[in-house]
From TrEMBL:
Tagged with keyword Transferase: yes
Alphabetized SUPFAM superfamilies for the sequence: NagB/RpiA/CoA transferase-like
Similarity annotation: Belongs to the 3-oxoacid CoA-transferase subunit B family.
Protein name in the entry: 3-oxoacid CoA-transferase subunit B
Keywords: Transferase
Organism: Pseudonocardia broussonetiae
The keyword DNA-binding is assigned to this record: no
Source domain of life: Bacteria
Gene Ontology MF annotations: CoA-transferase activity
């Protein structure tokens, strides 16, 4: 299983049964492939409620895509509607969980996920709306960037997506919750130690993992 799929699978326990869930671009879209059938109602900003798993090779419908323009399937009973209605759902608080990717997460749980200085930007997409409108926000991201630098930092050097802090951060190494304005380590991936997480994290965090091993 790829690192990205490992992260996506680790997100699943944070999705309540039957919840309306929006999956952001990138790793979050893979969550659909790890959710049990009918465990949640997946929504995408371009106007579909009832997103299914990634289509098999040769079975993709070019007209059926998510907000990132990648092919999806539709569950039986899915509904299609205008993107304006979709954003009405988001801004109206009708999306229970949003799963977003991130370029950086700061020590307060705020994220930057839409712009890299010096690179062209097509737009912020629905990330700002989801951070403000979704009841719970889960970040699904690799613990470090491609160059090995930490993504969880004291302060974001990229533009923040919103002032609202996320609720949960899930990586291939660990899971953090955001409480009282700070990060709390609540789970370690199998075989990972607290020391390993500290070595790859540039922001302070509290540890609340009873079985954690510092070694």
């Amino acid at each position: 299983m790829s690192v990205q799929d490992v992260i996506a699978a680790r997100v699943v326990p944070h999705i309540p049964p039957g919840a309306v869930v929006n999956l952001g671009i990138g790793i979050p879209t893979l969550v659909a492939d790890h959710l049990p059938e009918h465990a949640a109602h997946l929504q995408t900003e371009n106007g579909l409620l009832g997103v299914g798993p990634t289509p098999l090779p040769g079975e993709a419908d070019p007209d059926l895509v998510h907000a990132g323009k990648k092919p999806v399937t539709a569950r039986p009973g899915a509904s299609f509607f205008a993107s304006s209605d979709s954003f009405g759902m988001i801004r109206g608080g009708h999306v229970e969980v949003a799963v977003l990717g991130a370029l950086q997460i700061d020590a307060r749980g705020r994220i930057a996920n839409w712009s890299v200085p010096g690179k062209p930007v097509l737009g912020v997409g629905g990330a700002m709306d989801l951070l403000v409108g979704a009841r719970t926000v889960v970040v699904a991201t690799t613990h470090t960037a491609k160059d090995g630098s930490p993504k969880i930092v004291e302060e974001c050097s990229y533009p923040l997506t919103a002032q609202r802090a996320v609720d949960v951060v899930v990586t291939e190494l660990a899971t953090f919750r955001v409480r009282d304005g700070g990060l709390v380590l609540v789970d370690l991936a199998e075989g990972v130690t607290v020391d390993e997480v500290r070595a790859r994290t540039a922001a302070p965090f509290r540890v609340e993992v009873p079985e954690a091993v510092d070694a």
